[in-house]
Automatic annotation (TrEMBL):
SUPFAM superfamilies: Ribonuclease H-like. The keyword Oxidoreductase does not apply. This is GRF-type domain-containing protein. Residues 165-208 form the GRF-type domain. The keyword Cell inner membrane does not apply. It comes from Aegilops tauschii subsp. strangulata. GO terms for molecular function: 3'-5'-RNA exonuclease activity; nucleic acid binding; zinc ion binding. PROSITE patterns: ZF_GRF. Gene3D superfamilies: Ribonuclease H-like superfamily/Ribonuclease H (3.30.420.10). Keywords: Exonuclease, Hydrolase, Metal-binding, Nuclease, Zinc, Zinc-finger.
Length: 208
C-alpha cells in the first residue's frame, strides 16, 4: 500500500528519505512489527532523518519532545500527542517549516551502519523567516533533560532468553515503555546497549 502511494505520487524512483522524530520508529518499532506480522519491509525504511538532529542544530541544542519542539518553532500543535497519525502530521509541519527557512537535510541514521553517526547538517537561513523562536523559552528548555530511553532492563525469562545478539553478546532483556499498543511487552535486544551509546546491532526478539 505504501509503495503504491509512492508510485502514485511519483516519488518511489526518486531520491527521498523517511523522516521521523527520534530513532525509535525505524530502528525498533517498525523493524519488530514487520517481523512479527511477517511483512516485507521496503529497503528505503533502513535509513532515515531523525528530525531531532537538525532541530537541535537549528535551535542551539534544545532537547525536548515533539510537541514542545513544534510549539518552540512557533507552530500550534494539532491533534493528540502520541497518536501515530497526529505525530506524523506535526512532524511533517515542523519539517516543512525548517525547509522553508532554507535548512538542508541529510541522512542521520541507518540500519546499514553498525554504529549510526549523524552526518553533518548544513543550514542556511532564509532572508526573512516568518517566525522566530522565543529565546527566553529556548534557554529554559536547554536546561531540560532529554526524555529517558524507551527501554529499560527487565529480568524476564521468555523463549528468547539465552540468545546472543548480532554482536555476539548475550541479548539484553528490556521492556517497551513508549506509550502505545506494545507498551509493557518484554523483548530482548542488543547485549551491548548502554544509555549513552544505545544499541550497536539491530538484534530484536519478543520475549514471548
Amino acid at each position: 500500500m505504501h509503495d503504491k502511494w509512492l508510485e502514485d505520487k511519483g516519488i518511489k524512483h526518486k531520491n527521498f528519505a523517511v523522516v521521523t522524530w527520534s530513532n525509535w520508529d525505524c530502528r525498533v518499532m517498525l523493524e519488530s512489527e514487520c517481523r512479527f506480522k511477517r511483512i516485507r519491509k521496503p529497503p528505503y525504511f533502513n535509513r532515515w532523518i531523525n528530525l531531532k538532529v537538525p532541530f537541535q542544530e537549528v535551535y542551539g541544542g534544545v532537547r525536548c519532545n515533539l510537541k514542545d519542539a513544534v510549539q518552540l518553532a512557533g507552530l500550534t500543535w494539532e491533534g493528540r500527542a502520541h497518536c501515530g497519525l497526529d505525530d506524523a502530521r506535526n512532524t511533517a509541519r515542523l519539517l516543512a517549516l525548517l525547509m522553508h527557512r532554507g535548512f538542508k537535510f541529510s541522512i542521520t541514521n541507518s540500519l546499514v551502519w553498525q554504529q549510526p553517526a549523524p552526518q553533518a547538517i548544513t543550514c542556511q537561513p532564509s532572508p526573512s523567516p516568518d517566525r522566530s523562536p522565543d529565546l527566553t523559552l529556548l534557554q529554559q528548555h536547554k536546561a531540560k533533560e532529554m526524555l529517558g530511553p524507551h527501554l529499560h532492563a527487565h529480568p524476564y525469562a521468555g523463549k528468547a532468553a539465552g540468545q546472543v545478539c548480532f554482536c555476539g553478546a548475550p541479548s539484553r532483556p528490556n521492556t517497551v515503555r513508549k506509550p502505545g499498543p506494545m507498551q509493557g511487552r518484554h523483548f530482548y535486544g542488543c547485549g551491548n546497549w548502554t544509555v549513552t551509546r544505545r544499541a550497536i546491532c539491530t538484534f530484536f526478539a519478543w520475549a514471548s
